[in-house]
């Protein structure tokens, strides 16, 4: 698309408000125009803030402050009409709050021995069709755990292997075995009650795909840089694409349609902010209206991107097996939004084109993608 064309989609910044603390996570409250932010103050505490619109302004509706900083937030396991979100703190506690009763969590458990870096939820859309609600957490202790809030112990505990560990130290003082941190988790493949995948990304560049029905790792790949963001293009369909965002400005699109025993999945390496950019792509989020349109954040910029499928998504080899063919990606617009790093961005699932984001400049921002319907074909 031509950037000079007035019909080319772009991102407009509508509202911005100072919050007085660093924002690490944002999430729109389901079926509303309110947004939740979590983060860390200069005192190390964790504010949870609900923002709403009043008289054409973005204002703070409610705020509570937790003892420990919070780094992530998800409504994925909240069953409509309930509005419950999961978050994790720097002490390793998994907390679930009701949006109308923020004073005390409705579920709390000491989930990890280190900081919880990421959380994702699934099953809230329709448990009878897509399976029971579950929450996944990943932490600095290297563990990934799966939770059902009806019990205080994890449904699943996944630890890194000895092969991925490093011995850090000196020969005269001794070595300490260090395991990679889990930086991000994402659910996908939940197209039936008994089907569910979990993707896990680590600081050493390892990606692991876990089939929760088979309870086995079905795919592993090592990238050159640490993985900071993961998202399936849709949670509730058969696995189609997984987007991986990393340090050094790389974004990898994995086509999950065709798996080859030797070549594995087809992978596209794409840099949405240009080949010279080394800005960390902290998150990637797909548009609710199109699974091939996504937004990512790097530095103080937002990029709106579109994935284009090839004419054929696989080809047959001489031995009769099929190998996947990757498509192409294009940056529709790349807009500077903040003076400092944007580390969290989210779409409103009910009001197409509405975005929220935040970061280290201590502001909450609301924006809108114009003419997004033109990208849905």
UniProtKB/TrEMBL annotation:
Segments annotated as WD repeats: 135-157
SMART domains for this protein: WD40 (SM00320)
Protein keywords: Repeat, WD repeat
InterPro entries: WD40/YVTN_repeat-like_dom_sf, WD40_repeat_dom_sf, WD40_rpt
PROSITE patterns the UniProt entry points to: WD_REPEATS_2
Pfam families: WD40
Designated name of the protein: WD40 repeat protein
Organism per entry: Giardia muris
Lineage: Eukaryota, Metamonada, Diplomonadida, Hexamitidae, Giardiinae
């Amino acid at each position: 698309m031509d950037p000079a064309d007035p019909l080319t989609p772009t991102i407009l910044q509508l509202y911005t408000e100072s919050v007085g603390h660093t924002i690490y996570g944002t999430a729109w409250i389901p079926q509303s125009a309110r947004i939740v932010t979590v983060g860390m103050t200069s005192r190390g505490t964790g504010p949870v803030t609900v923002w709403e619109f009043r008289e054409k302004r973005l204002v703070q509706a409610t705020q509570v402050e937790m003892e420990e900083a919070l780094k992530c937030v998800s409504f994925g396991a909240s069953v409509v009409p309930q509005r419950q979100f999961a978050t994790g703190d720097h002490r390793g506690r998994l907390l679930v709050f009701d949006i109308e009763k923020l004073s005390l969590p409705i579920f709390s458990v000491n989930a990890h021995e280190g900081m919880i870096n990421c959380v994702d939820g699934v099953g809230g859309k329709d448990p009878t069709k897509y399976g029971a609600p579950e929450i996944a957490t990943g932490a600095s202790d290297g563990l990934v755990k799966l939770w059902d809030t009806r019990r205080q112990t994890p449904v699943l505990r996944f630890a890194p292997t000895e092969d991925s560990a490093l011995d850090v130290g000196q020969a005269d003082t001794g070595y300490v075995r260090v395991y990679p941190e889990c930086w991000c988790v994402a659910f996908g493949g939940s197209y039936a009650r008994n089907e569910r995948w979990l993707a896990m990304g680590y600081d050493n560049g390892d990606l692991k795909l876990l089939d929760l029905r088979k309870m086995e790792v079905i795919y592993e790949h090592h990238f050159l840089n640490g993985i900071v963001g993961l998202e399936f293009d849709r949670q509730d369909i058969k696995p189609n694409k997984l987007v991986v965002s990393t340090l050094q400005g790389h974004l990898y699109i994995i086509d999950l349609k065709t798996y080859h025993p030797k070549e594995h999945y087809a992978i596209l390496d794409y840099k949405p902010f240009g080949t010279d950019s080394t800005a960390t792509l902290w998150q990637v989020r797909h548009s609710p209206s199109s699974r091939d349109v996504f937004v990512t954040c790097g530095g103080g910029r937002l990029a709106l991107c579109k994935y284009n499928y090839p004419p054929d998504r696989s080809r047959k080899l001489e031995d009769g097996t099929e190998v996947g063919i990757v498509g192409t990606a294009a940056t529709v617009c790349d807009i500077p939004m903040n003076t400092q790093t944007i580390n969290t961005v989210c779409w409103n699932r009910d009001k197409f084109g509405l975005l929220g984001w935040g970061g280290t400049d201590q502001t909450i921002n609301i924006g809108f993608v114009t003419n997004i319907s033109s990208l849905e074909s």
